Amino acid sequence: MPVAQAARVLLVLLAAALAGCAGLRGREPPTLEQVVQMSRDGVPAEKIIQELQETNAVYPLTGAQIAKLHDRGVPESVLDYLQQAYVDSIRWQERMRYSDPFWGGCFGCYYYRPWIGPSVVIPY
């Protein structure tokens, strides 16, 4: 097989592999505005929570933001789920940080780290 043809085959395989990885993410989580709209449209709280669970949605909300969502009609069970999902994600991140020496990219700095602040979770 000539070198040019082998390079083309390798390029096609690489493109196929990257395209396959792109589909692993799944669907996007709903925005908070969409959660409010689902609540106003009468979607049951269980369905909203199921949607949040299926998309692995995690939102770092402040108390004021939770209060505003409540005032806009989001059910309390959904607000409780949003807060618990955030707490669970922080716990998971910290567990991984201290149990897996390669999680944060620093092998020897997991035993004494006074400079660590709160973890930030971005919806994924």
Rounded to the nearest angstrom, the radius of gyration is 21 Å
Instruction: Quickly give the structural class.
Output: mainly alpha
- Terminal CA distance reads 43 Å
Shape: elongated
Q: Name the helicity range.
A: 55-70%
- Count the beta strands: 0
What can be said about the biggest beta sheet? none
How is the quaternary structure best described?
Answer: single chain
| Average pLDDT over all residues | 77
Instruction: Bin the strand percentage.
Output: under 5%
Count of helical stretches: 5
Write the layout of secondary structure elements.
Layout (H helix, E strand, L loop, with lengths): L2 H20 L9 H9 L4 H10 L8 H9 L4 H24 L25
Helix pairs in contact: 3-5
Task: Please name the defining characteristics of this protein.
124 residues, mainly alpha, elongated
